[in-house]
């Protein structure tokens, strides 16, 4: 998940104050044996198990239970949070190489029939759609409701 989308979902602000941004670390990572396809009629991708493929994504350190509740609610019933292992990418000279293996979660898409055959293109999303998912007048307030419901009375 792009940092701008993460902060929009969890803080209703794609550019929160520096003190909040410093709570998290975003590190490029590789998830093996998954592919990120375009979801039909949607702007967003669906990660789906696919042997031999891999996804370049972001490993986020510093997530709280409240963040995860908001992300679960945002992703909705089309996805299931699954525990996976990723390899963080690190620089060696001008090259990125696989580094430390970390256990984390991925939101796996549940409906294979709703995926297009072609891979989802992050650069295309960034260029054409990111502004729609992180614009200033768009907030994701329902995540607060989900966090409260999960916490219980």
Give me a quick take on this structure.
This protein has 153 residues and is an alpha+beta fold. The protein has six helices and five strands, in the order ααββαβββααα. α3 packs across α6.
Could you explain the architecture of this structure?
This protein has 153 residues and is α+β, with helices and mostly antiparallel strands. The protein has a single domain, classed as Roll (Hypothetical upf0131 protein ytfp). Strands 1, 2, 3, 4 and 5 form a 5-stranded antiparallel β-sheet that branches. A hairpin with a 2-residue loop joins strand 3 and strand 4. Helix 3 crosses helix 6. The longest helix is centred in the middle third of the chain and has 11 residues.
Q: How do the strands and helices of this protein lay out in sequence?
A:
Blueprint: H1 3-11, H2 18-21, E1 25-39, E2 45-61, H3 65-75, E3 79-92, E4 95-109, E5 115-119, H4 122-128, H5 130-134, H6 142-151
Antiparallel strand pairs: 1-2, 1-3, 1-5, 3-4
The total of helices stands at 6
Counted up, domains total 1
Class by helix and strand content? alpha+beta
Examine the coordinates and then state which fold CATH places here, giving the name of the CATH topology: Hypothetical upf0131 protein ytfp
Chain-averaged pLDDT: 84
| Binned strand content | 35-45%
CATH architecture: Roll
Low-confidence stretches: 142-153
* Full CATH superfamily name: Gamma-glutamyl cyclotransferase-like
Secondary-structure element order, N to C: HHEEHEEEHHH
Helix content: 25-40%
What is the molecular shape?
globular
Q: Report the radius of gyration as a whole number of Å.
A: 16 Å
Q: How many strands in all?
A: 5
| Top-tier CATH class | Alpha Beta
Biggest sheet layout? 5 strands, antiparallel
Terminal CA distance reads 31 Å
GO molecular function: transferase activity
Protein name: Putative gamma-glutamylcyclotransferase
Keywords: Transferase
Domain Gamma-glutamylcyclotransferase AIG2-like: 25-120
